[in-house]
Amino acid sequence: MDALKTIAASSLKAETPKFNIGDTIKVGVNIREGEKERVQMFEGTVIAKKGSGVAETFTVRRVSYGVGVERVFPIHSPNVVSVEIIRHGRVRRSKLYYLRDRVGKASKVKEQIR
Fold first, then answer.
1. Is residue 93 within 8 Å of 27, Cβ to Cβ?
2. CA-to-CA dists, residue 95 to 32, 62, 66, 84, angstroms
3. pLDDT of residue 13
4. pLDDT the model gives residue 74
5. 76, 21 Cβ separation under 8 angstroms
6. In this structure, are residues 58 and 75 in contact, taking their beta carbons and an 8 Å threshold?
7. Are residues 24 and 87 in contact, defined by beta-carbon separation less than 8 angstroms?
8. If we measure between CA atoms, which residue out of 23, 32, 42, 43 comes closest to residue 90?
9. How many Cβ atoms from other residues are within 10 Å of residue 8's Cβ?
10. Can you list the domains of the chain with their CATH numbers?
11. Which helix (H) or strand (E) holds 68?
12. Where is 29: in which H helix or E strand?
């Protein structure tokens, strides 16, 4: 088990972004198309954070052309280039799965004033 822990510790990022559930963030993801690489931005609300260590992930949800889109990103993945916080949300839950059933303004998260 110690060997696994040392391998896992070497693949952790030195500085992880500090964001919470309900925050609206913009995630820069490395996309490979043949020989070319580019960074694609995915902006949405963080509805879940799971796991710990190397296996830590977060789920971002947005509505695109009337269709809800969710993506799960590993925090320590080399494909996650950047995480930029757009605004902080004020929520009272650790998982915001109930936003999947909401439509329009009801699916918005109130902003936390800091």
1. no
2. 31, 15, 22, 20
3. 77
4. 93
5. no
6. yes
7. yes
8. 23
9. 13
10. 2-103 (2.30.30.790)
11. strand 67-74
12. strand 24-33
